[in-house]
Each structure stands twice: as C-alpha cells, then as structure tokens.
Design brief:
The protein has 371 residues and is α/β, with parallel strands linked by helices. The chain has two domains: 138 residues, NAD(P)-binding Rossmann-like Domain (Rossmann fold), CATH 3.40.50.720; 184 residues, Dihydrodipicolinate Reductase, domain 2. It has eleven helices and 15 strands. The strands form two sheets. It has a nine-stranded mixed β-sheet with strand order 14-13-12-11-7-10-9-8-15.
Length: 371
C-alpha cells in the first residue's frame, strides 16, 4: 500500500483485512468462561491454532463446559491456581475490571508467566491503569490490552486506505452506534458505564486511525430505558486532533424500545471524509454479519465507489489478531502492538471524557497526567 495505488489495485482488493499468523507457540491459560471467552477468544484461537492448555472461572462447572466444548485439557479450581500452573506462559483474562488488577498482579509475580492479555477497560481508574503499566515494566513482563476493534476488518482496511493517501488529508470522522451490547450484570454496580465500557472501543479506534487528540468534549445523559441507575447512559464525544481532524463518537447502547415484537434497527456506522475522498462503512457485530467498507477517491478510484470484500467478522476473528500480536511480541522480543503503555493513553482519553462530562467543558489531554 502506498500513494501510487491504482484504481485497479483498489478494485482488486489490495488490502489485508486480517493478520497473518507469525507465531503460535506459547501456551495459553484462559481465565473466564462467559460469552466473550467462549464465543470469541476460544473460537479465534482454535481457528488460528493457538495452544490453550488450561481454563478457570469463578464457577468450575462453567469452566468445565467451556473446556469440553473447546478441548481444553486442564480445568483449574480458581483463577489463582491457573496462574500458578507452571505449564502456562500467557495468561488470557476475561474478567470484570474491578477484579482484573489483582489477577494481573498475581501473574506478574510468577516466574513462568511471560505475558498477560487483559480486557478493556484495564481497570476502573486511570490511576490503577498507570500503576499496572509500571508494575509490569518493573517485572519485565508483557502486559497487553484487548482493544480488539483495531482488528475489526473494516478498521484495518480503513487504516490502510488512509495511510495510502487515497483520501487526502483527513478532515472529519464519525462513529455512530445505536446497538445493544451483551451488557454483563456486574456493570450495574459501577458508577461509570458507557464511556468506560463501550466508548473505549471507539475512542481507541480513533486513536489508532488518527493518533492522539489534543482535546475531548463529552456530553452524557442517563438513559430511562435501563434497569439500573448509572451516570453515563448515552454519550457523545467530540475530539480534536493536532492535524486538524475533528471526530465524533456517539454511543446509544439501549437503542430503541427493548420489548418483544419491536423490530429495531441496531447498527454501528462510521464515516471518514478527506480532501481527496470519502470512506464509509458498518461494524457488523450487532447483526452477526461481516463489517463493511466502501470508499471513493479522486486519486485512486476515479471518483467511483469501491467496496473491498472479506468473509471474516469482528467477532470472533479480530481476536486472532489480538493474541497474534502478543505471541509475536514474545517471539520477536518487540513491544506488542497493543501495549499497556499505549492503552494508558486510551484510559487517559476516557478520564478526560469524564472530566468533560462533570465540568461541562472541553478538556485538553495535556491536563491528564500519565507519568
């Protein structure tokens, strides 16, 4: 991919929507047996040939069911016992963010553990995330965070289109979500909801596409369609980047009336506009379909719309990329693409968003210390 990409290249689909697997030799122990582990992590690892050697969860019976489904040889009584299993080299966590830091710290103490893959948000506060970053560095172990939307096929191809110069200088971007996630029941006990647990996907994706923003303005309201009290139900964030790009991220996570017989239109759409072209697409997860991308460029497609195709999906195939980048980092001795140091910057952006909600103003990222 480069500035010289021709229309023929674009029409032929000269893109890489999914990663090539460069490493698969490190033994994985999985903690958690819920939807995200059973339907995404383990499905992806099976397809990629990543060796999963053990599993544990809060309930052994659930772990046993998942182990039987995915042919995992060992089931441990507790997450802590799994972490202490000397046969395990990578700990893969799918646990609530209030419980995740303690398990990360336990793993950092084990000499046989080489790396940890944590869920996002990494912790409930930026302070905790910074401490985990620094503790991992002192322990000399890799801590990576599962920002899997970077490996959604439409996001990867969009990044390749942008980097090729086909859209020119980027002017404006938006992500528009009206979809109901698989909200976990534990979220009802947190004072922070949508920005921390769903916007984290989109804000991190915008950082992946455009770099670190200068400032964020976030508005939020409580959503009367929820079954529990919360601080931020619907959120709208506007970001400004040093390049001049302005981006908007909207999350409406109780979209439409939630009642039997009501035919809603759940969707996640995105759009990026540049001086030489436009790209638009969908994230297919809410409807169980592949994500999509179409773009038109005055430079490379003659102004015609081009729609690259792929058969893979965000869930579960993006999770191949997430574990692959960690395996490759161990094999090559390089920093993972999804490093904890980079993720702390996403956590700082979320923290700035909450400050913006509370203080009703634009917040510069320079106000949020991550040292």
């Amino acid at each position: 991919m480069n500035d010289a990409m021709t229309r023929e290249d674009a029409m032929a689909g000269a893109f890489e929507p999914d990663v090539a697997v460069r490493a698969r030799e490190f033994r994985i122990g999985c903690i958690g047996a819920g939807m995200i582990m059973a339907e995404c992590h383990l499905a992806a690892y099976k397809e990629a040939g990543f060796p999963v050697v053990a599993i544990a969860s809060r309930t052994r019976a659930n772990a046993e069911k998942v182990a039987q489904r995915w042919d995992i040889p060992t089931v441990h009584e507790t997450p802590e016992q799994l972490i202490e299993d000397k046969n395990i080299e990578i700990v893969d966590l799918a646990f609530p963010p209030d419980q995740q830091p303690a398990l990360i710290r336990h793993a950092l103490k084990q000499s046989h553990i080489k790396a940890i893959l944590a869920q996002k948000p990494l912790a409930l506060s930026l302070k905790d995330a910074i401490e985990l970053r620094d503790e991992a560095a002192r322990a000399g172990k890799i801590l990576s965070v599962n920002q899997n939307m970077r490996y959604d096929q439409s996001m990867r191809v969009l990044k390749q289109v942008i980097d090729s110069g086909a859209l020119g200088d980027i002017v404006f971007a938006q992500i528009d979500m009206h979809a109901i996630p698989h909200w976990q029941s534990f979220l009802a006990g947190y004072d922070r909801l949508t920005l921390s647990n769903m916007s984290v996907h989109h804000l991190d994706a915008l950082r992946f596409l455009f770099g670190d923003p200068d400032e964020i303005t976030t508005l939020a309201r409580k959503d009367p369609r929820t079954a529990f009290d919360h601080h931020d139900g619907i959120t709208v964030s506007t970001l400004r980047f040093p390049s001049g790009v302005m981006a908007v991220s909207l999350e409406d996570v109780w979209s439409g009336p939630r009642r039997e017989g009501y035919r809603d239109d759940q969707h996640i759409d995105w759009r990026v506009e540049g001086t030489a072209g436009v790209a638009k697409g969908t994230i297919g997860w809410p409807t169980g379909a592949a994500s999509t991308l179409s773009y038109a460029s005055a430079r490379t497609t003659g102004g015609e719309w081009v729609s690259p195709k792929w058969e893979t999906m965000w869930f579960p195939h993006a999770f191949i990329g997430v574990m692959e980048q960690l395996q490759y980092a161990l094999k090559s001795g390089t920093s993972p693409a999804l490093s904890v140091a980079d993720n702390v910057k996403t956590m700082a952006l979320i923290e700035a968003g909450y400050r913006s909600i509370d203080q009703r103003r634009a917040v510069k990222l320079s106000e949020i210390s991550i040292d």
